[in-house]
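Cross-check.
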Amino acid sequence: MEMEDIKEKQYIEGFVVKTTKGKNIHFGDGSEKPALLVLFTTWCSSCQDAAPAISKKFAHLKGKINLIGIGREHNAQELEEWANTVGLEYDLIEDPDRSLFNRFAELHVPRMYLVDTKGNVSYQDVNWHPLMLEDMEEAIKKLI
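Predicted model, tokenized:
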């Protein structure tokens, strides 16, 4: 995989998204809390492993960081049904037209970004391996 496929991000401008439950969340530059973004699709086998594992590992940090799942090419109903099936415990953002996903990448899910309150990306990765949880945890501990 070429680095241009990964589209590394160093900074994410601040913006507000609405969750599938109607809550507004500000992440990136100017946000109140750091955010762990998980970009996924429900049909991707790696995402089917990654999204629930990340949710289970970091759900206890919801008061300290925003855990946000962005469902590429999915609407709110699809995301809510899938989240209930696999037990996701983070906020979900629908992205049926890929407009949000395209801010980060063109290809490849799952994709994870840890973003501080100034918009700086302190951790990012693409694809999935369970050992990534340790790297994410270390990066999160440095932020909070």
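The beta strands are 15-18, 24-27, 35-40, 66-72, 91-95, 111-115, 121-126. Helices lie at 3-6, 45-58, 76-86, 132-143. Passed to J.P. for a second look.
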